[in-house]
């Protein structure tokens, strides 16, 4: 009878070590001055003395994944954008309360460690962290043979941020008369991909299909990285009277914006104020998806909403334009009971 080993069980420790070596080249771009080197590599260290500048610093934390978008990345063999998506999902939740993202960790589970694939994923995470201004201080890659197929993987991340207690944004600041701004998404972002995959299974569409309205293959369009708003939203909150943000993820625009309203206010949004990117109309048409279902599944072209004091709206739009972020007046806040309508 032959001897049993970890490698025989499907775990390749050498491949894991090579993956770590390959990803090191990407980590330098995702650093902050407060990161302290931990020689053991078992933990990430962050110098908390940087928080002394705050009167009452509140730590904010968020965790998320990328959902079934990873399946499309796997099928297309494109791995350098999915990590970028992960960062967007985490840091743009943090910034909703006004928190500056400080650092992130990631977790990748796979059926088989392919060092180049893992390094590409982490490269995307590092690139996203650089765009968000936060550090990638650690992570974990786990090989799960027998549980996941060799080409299958999933990833998740957690982030920590900080906000001054007196500057926390949210529903308690929102009042009737406030203006709701829409901040454009880069596309579908990282929500609704189970419906996308259902449409691919039940229509003639494939990832290789080139739709005239898109000007490229459907697969390329669907893997467009999630827009990362963190720096833009922090700059806006510093320069203008922002009362609340809403990150438009699962549940769509109405459900997510409602989370940032008090029970005494409604938001009335004008559908005619924006035109969603063509991918949304394509999915609605080819998949025969009712508009109501589209609205509650996808961001429909609005990746983040900002609720600002009316006198600050014009200045806010100018600042966002200077940052290269398309934005517009989406609607207004009126007395009500905490609901959102899109007319």
Automatic annotation (TrEMBL):
This is Phosphoribosylformylglycinamidine cyclo-ligase. Its EC number is 6.3.3.1. Its main location: cytoplasm. It comes from the Bacteria. It catalyses: 2-formamido-N(1)-(5-O-phospho-beta-D-ribosyl)acetamidine + ATP = 5-amino-1-(5-phospho-beta-D-ribosyl)imidazole + ADP + phosphate + H(+). Belongs to the AIR synthase family. The keyword Acyltransferase does not apply. GO terms for molecular function: ATP binding; phosphoribosylamine-glycine ligase activity; phosphoribosylformylglycinamidine cyclo-ligase activity. Residues 55-163 form the PurM-like N-terminal domain. Keywords: ATP-binding, Cytoplasm, Ligase, Nucleotide-binding, Purine biosynthesis. GO terms for cellular component: cytosol. Pathway: Purine metabolism; IMP biosynthesis via de novo pathway; 5-amino-1-(5-phospho-D-ribosyl)imidazole from N(2)-formyl-N(1)-(5-phospho-D-ribosyl)glycinamide: step 2/2. Residues 176-339 form the PurM-like C-terminal domain. It is found in: Cytoplasm. The gene is purM. Pfam families: AIRS, AIRS_C. It is an enzyme of class 6 (ligase). GO terms for biological process: 'de novo' IMP biosynthetic process; adenine biosynthetic process. The lineage of its organism: Bacteria, Bacillati, Actinomycetota, Actinomycetes, Streptosporangiales. PANTHER family: TRIFUNCTIONAL PURINE BIOSYNTHETIC PROTEIN ADENOSINE-3 (PTHR10520:SF12), TRIFUNCTIONAL PURINE BIOSYNTHETIC PROTEIN ADENOSINE-3-RELATED (PTHR10520).
């Amino acid at each position: 009878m032959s001897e049993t080993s970890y490698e025989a069980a499907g775990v390749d420790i050498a491949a894991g070590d090579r993956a770590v070596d390959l990803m090191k080249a990407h980590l330098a771009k995702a650093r902050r001055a407060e990161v302290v080197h931990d020689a053991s590599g078992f933990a990430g260290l962050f110098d908390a003395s940087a928080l002394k500048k705050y009167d009452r610093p509140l730590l904010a934390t968020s965790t998320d994944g990328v959902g079934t978008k990873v399946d499309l990345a796997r099928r297309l063999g494109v791995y350098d954008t999915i990590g970028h998506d992960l960062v967007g999902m985490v840091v743009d939740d943090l910034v909703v309360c006004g928190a500056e993202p400080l650092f992130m960790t990631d977790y990748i589970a796979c059926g088989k460690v392919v060092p180049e694939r893992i390094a590409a994923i982490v490269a995307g995470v590092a690139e996203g962290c650089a765009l968000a201004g936060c550090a990638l201080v650690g992570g974990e890659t786990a090989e799960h043979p027998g549980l996941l197929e060799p080409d299958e993987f999933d990833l998740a991340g957690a982030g920590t941020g900080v906000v001054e207690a007196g500057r926390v944004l949210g529903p308690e600041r929102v009042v009737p008369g406030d203006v709701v701004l829409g901040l454009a998404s880069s596309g579908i972002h990282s929500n609704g991909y189970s419906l996308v995959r259902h449409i691919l299974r039940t229509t003639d569409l494939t990832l290789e299909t080139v739709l005239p309205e898109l000007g490229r293959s459907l697969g390329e369009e669907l893997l467009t990285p999630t827009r990362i708003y963190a720096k833009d939203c922090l700059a806006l909150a510093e320069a203008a009277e922002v009362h609340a943000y809403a990150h438009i993820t699962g549940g769509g625009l109405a459900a997510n914006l409602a989370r940032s309203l008090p029970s005494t206010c409604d938001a009335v949004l004008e559908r005619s104020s924006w035109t969603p990117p063509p991918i949304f109309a394509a999915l609605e048409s080819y998949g025969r998806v009712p508009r109501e279902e589209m609205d509650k599944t996808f961001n429909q072209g609005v990746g983040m909403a900002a609720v600002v004091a009316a006198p600050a709206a014009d200045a806010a739009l100018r600042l966002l334009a200077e940052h290269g972020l398309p934005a517009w007046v989406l609607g207004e806040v009126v007395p009500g009971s905490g609901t959102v309508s899109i007319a």
